[in-house]
Amino acid sequence: MKKVKIMTCISILGIVVAMAGCSKESINPKDSINPNDSISQNDSTDADPTKNYTMPEEIAEHEGTWLQWPHNYTYGVGYKEEIEPVWIEMTRGLVKGENVHIIAYNIIEKSHIINVLTNAGVSLNRVDFYIYKTDDFWVRDNGPVFVYDEDDNLVITDWGFNGWGNKMPYAKCDIIPRKVSSEVGIARLDLSSVVLEGGAVEIDGNGTFMATRSSVTNSNRNPGLTEEQIENNLSQYLGVSNFIWLDGVYNSDDITDYHIDGFAKFHDSNTIVCLNQDDLNTWGVTQKDIETLFAAKNKDGEAYEYVCLPLTQNNVVTEWGKDIGYEGSYINYYIGNKVVLVPNYNDPNDEVANEILQNLYPEREVIGIDVCNLYYGGGMIHCITQQQPISK
Hints:
Blueprint: E1 11-12, E2 15-16, E3 62-68, H1 79-94, E4 99-104, H2 107-119, E5 127-131, H3 139-142, E6 145-148, E7 154-160, H4 163-166, H5 171-174, H6 176-184, E8 188-195, E9 201-203, E10 208-212, H7 213-216, H8 227-238, E11 242-246, E12 264-268, E13 271-275, H9 277-283, H10 287-294, E14 305-309, E15 334-335, E16 339-344, H11 349-360, E17 365-370, H12 372-377, E18 386-389
């Protein structure tokens, strides 16, 4: 099966969470923003759109990692409580080697986060907080994407975000990059005319870009742009020139329209980590896309080597006993300075995947984090993290 971000009214440890407007159909994706939440265009410094920019690979040294902490303001009381152990364990691991920038919905939520981290024995020495209202916690998709300009200055690219094609609330999350730019003092490049989610793209740091068309060039993202126009923007603002396009899957039950980060990821400019061909088929990837993936070449025209991670042996089951109905992917891991955070599922293949990744990243500690409850909501570790590279 595939990564599904459809949020529904769910049962938490047997207690049904009821909330007016909890079902997908009753939430307006274009929910209005309180005027007090908005930020003037003048509050952040604009970067030069005529320059060329380069996005470093995820494994490049981080200044820190951004997290949007879950809350109950969108989906109802109890939603946060069933999934926030994932954020606690991510923070515990990440502070070993970098700063952790936590976006809290309000002061009350900030106090709550401090309490749960402190009670869990997580050091706050490398943690800071930013108070911004959010619709959700998928910071990979809506958060700031950091790049370097031609003079190696750090810049925030602020791509458009429309709730995965107007499927979910997004107005609050869409302005997070602008808020971060204003508060931390990093110039912002306004690219809102191009919708691009961070989880939709993979960058190898050496000029190659990998994505599915269904999540980037799809008419529910960029109806007024051709693929060539999108590529021109990606080349200028991410520093890529070699494009590996998979078609993806349109009109599926995957709300992301098949983000690449669920089934394929660059290890470096010569190696792709992905599911094997049978598991890709199970995930719903078409045979044509499987052939394209395994025939891909890097910027220098060299064929990639492939390291395959398994799917879980069994269907993923939540903490409260709900069989989700499909297997879990380990591809959606996140590379920190000192750790690799890996989605785990209380499955026999957890150990298999963790060992493969430990061999791939011998200088980092591989930490498996139980994401079963989060996976029921639709995501894994990479989906809820966003790296900030060091300033040069």
